[in-house]
Amino acid sequence: MYLNLPMWSLIFRNLFFTILQPGLVAGLFPYWILGSRFSETAKSSFKTFQYVATVIFIIGFAIMVYCIGLFAVKGRGTLSPADPTKKLVISGMYRYSRNPMYIGVMLMLIAEAIFFRSVNLWIYAFVVFIGFNLFILLHEEPRLTRVFGAEYEQYCKNVRRWL
Fold first, then answer.
1. Is the separation of the CB atoms in 159 and 103 below 8 Å?
2. How far is the C-alpha of 139 from the C-alpha of 27, rounded, in Å?
3. Are 26 and 112 in contact (CB under 8 A)?
4. What is the CATH number of the domain that holds 79?
5. Which of 16, 36, 37, 118 is the most buried (most CB within 10 A)?
6. 90: CB partners within 8 A, 6+ apart
7. Opening angle at CA 81, ends 79 and 86, nearest 5
8. pLDDT at 79 (0 to 100)
9. DSSP labels for 80-101?
10. Which domain holds residue 17?
């Protein structure tokens, strides 16, 4: 059997960075913030708002996974700044927003705050959103401008940062 090492390497790198970055932000840190409330809520029966939150979470997760796939297939890289895409990704959801992956993660965090009715998770989601904005403005956009130049600048003129 022929093993395409570059593709397997890209798949494993994306899996690693997915666990490391959104996995921590939308998984482990909210779990820590909730503490014992996590297991208490898991034992109770779902309410309507929790079903709604579950749908929102699934939508956010699907957006995130789709965007990570685009980064691998179209951009030939990962979501991590340590291993960025080699090509500018402007297809799929990136035609409508320059940051759909962040939107997906934010939907997941909002869903968790709704699901657990946690003020602390709402505060955390707000802080993460501010952090995302700062990272995008201070690191991502300048790097993309340096690397992709006029192509990225034109993309910015045609596509909004968020929605």
1. no
2. 24
3. yes
4. 1.20.120
5. 118
6. 155, 159
7. 70
8. 87
9. STTS--SS---SGGGGT-S-HH
10. 5-158
Alpha carbon distance 38, 116 (integer Å):
8
Q: For residue range 102-143, what is the model confidence (pLDDT) as tens digits?
A: 999 999 999 999 999 999 999 999 999 999 999 999 999 999
pLDDT band, residue 2 (cuts 50/70/90): very low
Assign 1 a pLDDT band (cuts: 50, 70, 90). very low
Give the CA count within 13 Å in the CB-facing half-sphere of 43. Answer: 5
Structural domain includes residue 14:
yes
**Span 25-69, pLDDT tens digits:** 999 999 999 988 877 776 778 899 999 999 999 999 999 999 999
Residue with tokens 């409330």: 37
Residue 163 covered by a domain: no
Q: What gap in Å lies between CA 135 and CA 20, rounded to an integer? A: 17
